[in-house]
Specification:
11 strands, mainly beta, 7-stranded mixed β-sheet, globular, about 55% strand
Length: about 110
C-alpha cells in the first residue's frame, strides 16, 4: 500500500522560509508524479505544485511561482517543497498527493 507522510510545517513570520517533505513508501518515487496541495480555512483545496515521474518536470500555480520550489530525492523516496518569501495568505494545511493517495497534511501558519 502506498503511504505519503508530510512533515516540516510550522509557524513562521512573513518573509520567512519553510521546507516541507513528503516521504513515500510502498512505491518508488520515480514511478509516479507527486503533487502538493493546500487548503486554507473556508477555501477549496488547490494544487500548488507537482513534479513529474520520469523527467522530474515541475508545475507551479501562479500564486507560488517564483517563491516555491519542488524537488525530489528518489534515493530517499522523498519530495520536497521549499517555500520562500512566505506570506500570510500561504497559511493552510499542505498535503502531498499521488493518484488516489493523500498524506495526512501538515499545517503551515505565516504570521504578519
Amino acid at each position: 500500500e502506498v503511504q505519503l507522510v508530510e512533515s516540516g510545517g510550522g509557524l513562521v513570520r512573513a518573509g520567512g522560509s519553510l521546507r516541507l517533505s513528503c516521504a513515500a513508501s510502498g512505491t518508488n518515487r520515480g514511478d509516479r508524479a507527486i503533487g502538493w496541495f493546500r487548503q486554507a480555512p473556508g477555501k477549496e483545496r488547490e494544487e500548488i505544485s507537482c513534479i513529474g515521474s520520469s523527467d522530474g518536470s515541475a508545475y507551479y500555480a501562479d500564486s507560488v511561482k517564483g517563491r516555491f520550489t519542488i524537488s525530489s530525492d528518489n534515493a530517499k523516496n522523498t519530495v520536497y517543497l521549499q517555500m520562500n518569501s512566505l506570506k500570510p495568505e500561504d497559511t493552510a494545511v499542505y498535503y502531498c498527493q499521488s493518484h488516489s493517495y493523500w498524506g495526512q497534511g501538515t499545517q503551515v501558519t505565516v504570521s504578519s
